[in-house]
């Protein structure tokens, strides 16, 4: 049968018919209600570009301004000349910064897949398409610029509720919408103990306290991206642990998303591979990680999740395959294909994430809050990194959580005992275990917020951080 691509509008109208198999209903998992419902119908996150904004360069932002030419690598042609044609820059070595949505190739038509040299082998494959390593094609047909990935998303497999209308770009996959939006979200590094200081600081100003006390930070700093921050200084946007979108376009069959390659070229032979996704990393550490590398990885993911939640975005598919590591061990969260915008009090009734990482309320088919699901998934991921395997081997086990007689709890306790005799100042496995247990509370209301997760003793030390069931509350009372 010939393949007839459907435009997004038609897919939206088709609703149920356009659903990809979600994996729900297999292996004994219950099937939650399948009525498509995006919990937030408003569109507060559409581009903040003023209607009369001219094409880049946009004043005062760390924008897509082309970088100085790179030194030519042996056998390759020099970097491309400055792009004064309105195309977005693919040079991700510099902060990518906000872009005018009208400069994506989807609008300009300046790039399509012919503009890239893609490797034959896949860097990754998922339910909705595949990912290939690529570099831009220079004028002489040779590869130029940094290593990128191109994610091909099969249009027909995008779920009906995974589309969102963008003010400028029209209906686009939520993955593109969220990643484009994040390019305009101001980023300030999260202060240590943000959660505690915010709680005690009240609605307004900074908490009074001794010198050096942690001060409250506004979750959404008032920065004018189009004219710069204080004194017109550039504004950093996005999150360093979230893989940015550089460019995108579509054809009849696919959406093509261009992103930095978070991993270096695969190496061959006996040499270790530099950079990989966390799934492969766990495979290479079947007995789990030690507390120090675990802390480094998990803290970066928690910080990224906190940033998303602060800005009313949920990922909904946090798992080891959706985290990539660069050669220095820096983490990038990827794959926003299941992401969504959330609004206080509204719940989801569909789930397209991964069942091994699904919270009990999702498995029961109940309506669920995206943030609590993300925290559960973070707990599962933490367990996987500690023990080298999944905590729950069936939906029934997941619904029991870390109950007193469970295999998963016994495994965690055994890991926590490894602390005996360990350096007091070093990250402690028993703290990591406590954090995972808090995230894997069966009752979603008992799980910490992402903000509180970042202030757990495993990340900030026992003197400042909290631990134990609802420990963040006791911590607050003690201040
Ligand atoms: N920016 C990147 N750098 C390096 N590797 C990547 C990058 N993006 C994706 N990959 C690799 O490709 C795999 C698949 O990518 P991704 O998770 O985005 O697609 P997917 O699972 O098909 O997505 P979806 O859930 O939307 O179907 C990842 O697990 C990872 O190994
Ligand atoms: Mg994926």
TrEMBL record:
SUPFAM superfamilies for this protein: Protein kinase-like (PK-like)
PROSITE patterns linked to this entry: PROTEIN_KINASE_DOM, PROTEIN_KINASE_ST
Coiled coil: none
Record field: compositional bias (Low complexity): 41-55, 64-77
Domain Protein kinase stretches: 117-459
Alphabetical GO biological process terms: intracellular signal transduction; negative regulation of glycogen biosynthetic process
One Pfam family matching this protein: Pkinase
Domain of life, source organism: Eukaryota
Cellular component terms per the entry's GO annotation: cytosol; nucleus
The entry's keywords: ATP-binding, Nucleotide-binding
GO molecular function, a single term: ATP binding
Keyword Nucleotide-binding: yes
InterPro entries: Kinase-like_dom_sf (IPR011009), Prot_kinase_dom (IPR000719), Ser/Thr_kinase_AS (IPR008271)
Keyword Nucleotide-binding (UniProt): yes
Annotated segments matching region Disordered: 1-100, 196-218
Protein name according to UniProt: Protein kinase domain-containing protein
